[in-house]
């Protein structure tokens, strides 16, 4: 569903993403990395928001550079800071999104009703979005991304700022989408969420993909006997240096 081939992005002398290769099917794929590692840049290249310096992205077989309209019709996107038209109601916003994707009128009405029901915002659907909590706005953004029934869904740090209940609802929804055949690509720096939710994870560090696989595959490559995703992540990205600092402070 998502294929990245030698994907590279340079900003002057800065190599933000270097020769990234990924092949992602019907699964919930977690893309992990520290702030500045290249997660958002990768998602922007995969969704056509920025042009790669080198490389190719294919969405459901469509080359994003050569057939952008066909490729973009296949996915939904929730960026790290989703922009919502807050002077619209939820229903007005979803109608707007549906019209952008040219969803048929009868299908659109049914789709909006289903999404409002799914995200449990029926009682507030006619209120202005500016009156919603952060968690509710995140639900509206997700509903907007799903309005055209996409085959692929990109999410950039979707749990940022969500309370535990909203995070749990999001987890259940994403897992349900995967069961229905949707490919979900989710970037995050919250390792516990990735470990609990994802079928596979990729770890990016300083623009380089340093590991990719299931938890069992990553554990098999790790040097530690007892490992969780945090241990593996720190081992691969050099974060263990902070443990040495803490040890020094404790002894001094």
Structure description:
With 252 residues, the protein is α/β, with parallel strands linked by helices. It has ten helices and ten strands. The strands form two sheets. Strands 6-7-8-3-9-10 form a six-stranded mixed beta sheet, with helices on both faces. Helix 3 packs across helix 4 and helix 3 runs parallel beside helix 5. The longest helix has 16 residues. It starts with a strand and ends with a helix.
What's this model, at a glance?
With 252 residues, the chain is an alpha/beta fold. 40% of the residues lie in helices and 24% in strands.
Low-confidence stretches: 241-250
How large is the count of helical segments?
10
Q: What strand line-up does the widest sheet have?
A: 6-7-8-3-9-10
Characterize the largest beta sheet: strand count, sense, and whether it forms a barrel.
Answer: 6 strands, mixed
What's the SSE blueprint?
Elements: E1 2-11, E2 14-24, E3 28-32, H1 39-46, E4 54-59, E5 62-63, H2 68-72, E6 75-78, H3 90-100, H4 105-118, H5 134-146, E7 152-156, H6 164-179, E8 183-188, H7 191-197, E9 200-205, E10 208-213, H8 215-221, H9 229-237, H10 241-251
Parallel strand pairs: 3-8, 3-9, 6-7, 7-8
Antiparallel strand pairs: 1-2, 1-4, 4-5, 9-10
Helix pairs in contact: 3-4, 3-5
Descriptive terms for the model:
252 residues, Rossmann fold, 2 domains, 10 helices, 40% helix
